[in-house]
Amino acid sequence: MATDVRLSVDLGTTWTAAAVLAGGEPEPLPLGTDGPAMPSVVAAVEGSMVAGAAAVCAAATDPASSAREFKRRLGDTAPIVLGGTPYGAETLTGHLLAHVLRVAAERVGEPTAVTLTHPAVFGAYKLDLMREAARVAGLGDVTLLSEPEAAALHYARLGRLGPGDVVAVYDFGGGTFDAAVVRLDPSGPVLLGRPEGLERLGGIDLDHAVLAHVDAALDGVLSQLDPTDPDVRRGVLALREECVAAKEALSADTEVSVPVTLPGLATEVRVTRVEFESFVRPRIGETLDALDRAIASTGLTAGDLAG
Question: In this structure, what is the dihedral angle of CA atoms 52, 98, 18, 44, given to the nearest 10 degrees?
Answer without folding.
Answer: 10
